[in-house]
Amino acid sequence: MAVTVKNQDAALRLLLVDAAENDAARVLACLTAAGTRLQAQRVATAAALRDALRNATWDALLCRLPHPAPRGAKKLGAPGALRLLQDAALDLPFILLADSLDDKAVTHALQAGAHEVFAWGELERLLPAIRREIRAARHRADHRAALEMLRASETRFRVLAANLPGMVFQLEYDPASGLHFSYVSDGCDKLIGLKPNELLSAPQRFVEVVDTADRAALDKALEDSAATCSMLNWEGRIRKRGQVKWINLRSTPQRLDNGGMQWQGIATDISRSKEAEAKLRRSREQLSELSYHLEAAKEEERERIARDIHDELGSTLVAIKIKTALLSAKLPEQPPGLRDMAGDIEGMLDQAMSTVGRVARELRPGILKEFGLSAALECQAEDFSQRTGIACRVQCDDEGAQLDEQTSVALFRIFQEALTNVAKHAHASLVVVRLRREKGCIVLEIRDNGRGISEADLNKPRSFGLRGIRERINSLNGEFAIGPAEPGGSHIMLSVPTARRAESTPPPEESPQRNLF
After folding, report:
1. What are the pLDDT digits (tens) for 180-225?
2. Residue 157, domain member (yes or no)
3. Side-chain-side CA neighbours of residue 431 (13 Å)
4. Which DSSP helix (H) or strand (E) runs through 173?
C-alpha cells in the first residue's frame, strides 16, 4: 500500500513495516491530523522491504508490534527489519509502535538497534518523536561525514608529511609539565635517528641529540618565540649515529587556552647548504688573503720602483742639470742661440725632475710613513691640482689619528683612485675632501661638482676602479658608499675601524638558560 497525503509542508516519507491495513490507516490519519504532508508505504515481507529501501529514499521506519501474520508470506519482525536496514548500511530512525511497552519483543528490538518505542494509545505524540529522530539521524550523518572528511584530511596530511624532506612536528609547552611533542612525522628517524614513538614518549631525547654547544641557543630561541609569539627559526647541529648534521627548525607559535604555547612546523636537514656556505666563506677568505698578498706585493714593487726612480733616475737628472749649468756658464756670448738652448735644456730638466719626484711620491709617498695620512692626502691633493688644474681642498679634522700602515696605505690608494676617476670622468672643477674620526672609525669623504654618477656607471662590468675600492674596504672590515651629491656631482663616503678586528675572538659568556625540555 502506498499513500500520499498533501499538505503545505515538505513530504514526510515513511515506511510502515508489518502493519495491518487498518493499523496503517490509523497511523496515517493521526499524522495527517497533526498537519504534515506524507508519503507512506506499507511492507510486510523482507523482499518488499528490500525493494522499498533500494528504490526510494525514506525518512523513517515504523514497525507495528505485535506483528500480524500475512497469509502466504514469511513473517517480517522488528529484528529482521533491523538486520535488513543494517545490511543496506542505512541509518534511518526505526520507531516501534507497541500495544504494551513491557512487551519482551520491544526490549529485544531496542537492544537490536531500534531508536524509539511508542504506545499504541499515544499516537498523537508520534509526529514530534519522528521529527526528533529524523534530526538525530541527520546529525549522525553529518557527524559521520565530518569524521570521513577528517580521516581523509589526516590521510592527506600524513602522505604529505611522509614525502616532505624533513620532520613535521607539533611541539607544545605546558606551564606545568614543560615541553613535549604531540606529533612527529615518520621523517623523524631519517632526520635525527629516533623513532616517532621514542620522541613522543621522551621529548628530552631531542635535546640529547643536539650538539652541546647549540643547546643554549635552542632554549633561547624557544623562550624568545614563546615570550613574543614570534616565529621560531633555529639552526643548530645534531649528532646522529656519530655524524654531525645541521638542521633548521621553523615554526609559527600559537597561544593555548591554558597559558602554554604550541609550535607546528618542520625540521629540515640544511647540512648541504651549510657546507656550501662554509666553502663559499673559505673561498672568500682565500680571495681576501690573495688580494691582500697581491696588494702587499704591489706596494713592495711600487716602493722598489719609487726607490729606483728617486735614487738612480733622480740623481742622474740632478747630475745632468749640474753639468748642463756648468756647460752653460762656459758658453760664449756668440752665437746667442747656444745659451738660450742651454736654458731650455735646464728648464726641461727641472720639469723632468719635478715629474720624477711626483711619480715617486705617488708610487710610495715617503710623507705617508713619516708624517701620516693627513699630510699625504694634502700633498697628493696639491699634486693633483697642479697636474689637472682642478681645485682640491682637503680638511683633516683629526690629524693625530694613529692608523696602522696597511690601513693608511689602503686609504691613500683609495684617495688616489677617486681622484683619477674625477680627472677622467667627472668634468669637475672642484673636489672637496674631508678626513675625520667618528665613533671609533676613520671616515673619508670625497665630493666633486662634476656630472655625477649613475646606476649604469656603478654597474659597468669593467668598473675595476670602484671594484678595487670595495675590495680594499672589505679587507679592512669597513663600509663603502657612493652616489650622487647635492646639488650635483658625486659623493664617496667610506669608513674603517681605527683598531683592526682580531682574527678570532672568544665568544661572550652566555647567561645560563633554563632547559625547557
Report:
1. 999 888 888 888 888 989 999 998 899 899 999 999 999 999 999 9
2. no
3. 28
4. strand 166-174
Q: In this structure, are 409 and 499 located in the same domain? A: yes
Domain membership of residue 154 (yes or no) is no
Cβ–Cβ under 8 Å, residues 263 and 252: yes
pLDDT in tens, 8-60: 457 889 988 876 788 888 888 888 887 788 888 888 888 888 899 888 889 99
C-alpha cell at 298: 704591489
CB 396, CB 349: distance < 8 Å: no
Q: List the strands of the sheet with 430-438, edge to edge.
A: 391-396, 430-438, 441-448, 490-497, 479-484
Tell me, rounded to whole angstroms, the distance of Cα 335 from its chain centroid: 89
The reply to whether 169 falls in a domain is yes
The SS3 assignment for 454 reads: coil
Largest Cα–Cα distance in the chain? 167
Q: How many helices (H) and strands (E) does the chain have?
A: 17, 16
In one-letter notation, the amino acid at residue 374 is S
First to last CA, the chain: 71
Q: Which value, in Å, is the radius of gyration of the alpha carbons in the chain?
A: 49
Domain that holds residue 199: 164-269
Answer yes or no: do 44 and 122 share one domain: yes
**Grid cell listed for 19:** 502493519
